[in-house]
Model the fold of this input.
Amino acid sequence: MALAFPFNHHPCWSSERSIVWERIHLPVARNCNVQCGFCSNNIGSCDTLGPGGCEKIMDPEKAISTLAIESKKRPNLRIVGISGPGDPLFNNATFTTLQKVRDDFNGFHICLCTNGLLLEDKSPNLAELGVNTISVSMSALNPNIVSSIYSWAMINGHVESGKKMAETVVSLQLRGIKAASDLGILVKVNTILIPSINSNDIGELANAIQEAGASMQNIVPLIPRGRISDEIPPSHEQIMTARKRAGEYLPQFSHCKQCRSDVVGVPGCDSVLS
Done:
């Protein structure tokens, strides 16, 4: 997929690596509405390495002051993102922070990561706030597989589990992708490859998210932790096979560094926020 400006400068979208902007992840989203098997929900511990990890939660005021400081030090800092450690759409602090970014830092590109359960409902608000790109974490389409990845999900204020929960999660994620895409927000789907669990579901998943409106997929290896810490991560060959299969349906991103929720800089060469 050929990305138009400014997306060809976004380090989480562009294959061109010589002209990418720096980004900052503001860790304001404490709470989550799902329990993923590969998430231990630890803050400020050895498990902070990788997606969703952070040393501490910032309130919106601290986040904005941190952005102001970093933007003065980094002329190439052009992207503000919220990726956790919980789900951004499940936290009011996300929307407070994004409104302040829109009011005080006009010109910054705004993106966020989400599990997608609330994306359909929140998409109009996100569009109004000027969110440009969204990454949806979705690792399976088959409800039997989804129920083995998610221990539970909070749906309409109730905690649910099992196959019924999984069916609802998949429906909400696909509807969320469509709602955001229909509003002009670019959607990428982040898929965790767990060879013994979801490797046979990759092709059908890629087809479904493409039909829902996703523009790109990012298949990344499992980091074993949490409930499925005994699972074996995929080999390079397994990752490439999955990307080839999914690539029959939509473009694949291959530069992901599975970043923390409290970093600034270019992915793979960044610093933890203080």
